[in-house]
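User: Can you fold this complex?
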Amino acid sequence: MKKYYNVHTIWLFLIVLTINTYLFGHFQSSGIQVVLFIVLIAIIKATLIMREFMELRGVSLMWRIVMY
Amino acid sequence: MKKQPRLLPGDFAIWIFIFAELLVFAIFFITYSVVRAQNVELFNQFQLTLNHETGAINTVLLITASYFVVLAVHSIKRNQIKHCIGFIYAALICGGVFLAIKTYEFNEKFSLGINMSTNDFYFFYFSLTIFHYLHVILGMIILLAVAIKAQRGNYSSQNYTGVETGGAYWHMVDLVWIILFPLIYIIR
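Assistant: Here's the predicted assembly.
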């Protein structure tokens, strides 16, 4: 299967997500929906770092469960 | 034929260490969330005194440092040792700027007479960020050791476990900040 992303696009995506999080702080956004959205962004970022940067993609299921 | 799972990159022992470190930070984060839930107004009020801009810049710095570490690992796998060393030093520069910004932030707070005993919010702010700050220093020492060993010709495309091990630790430092930044600086 052709990969539509690589380490460079993942880095760029992580930066875009960080700017997104910063804007919520800058505009002092609050409320349960905002909190859930910020948490979702953090989970996506953490998953990308573990999967792509720490190279946990493809390791045994046990280790993926332990680390995630 | 069933595909065999890949082995963990780097030295296995570092993953036990990383897991233990992440558990400690997770306990800190859960405790912060529980205490915050009991005193939302105080936490929201003092959260406004934090600098979101420097927090965001620090996040970009750590993500970029992690990106350089990934490039260093990719380089050593292709036997591009000079590239590998260059990327590790680039990551170290990002880490150094992170520490400089964080030191400026701490100094700013201390000069205003704010410290860990000021209130519950600052207790968590200082404990979590200083604990993480110490991990950044340790991560930089490990990366520097890897860079020096690479300069001495200890790593190649056949032998790069040390680079992966140092890289895995650095990514853990980045990972913790990815959660710490929204939790302390943003969520209200």
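The CA atoms of residues 12 and 164 of chain B lie 11 Å apart. The helical segments of chain B are 12-38, 40-47, 52-77, 81-111, 120-151, 161-186.
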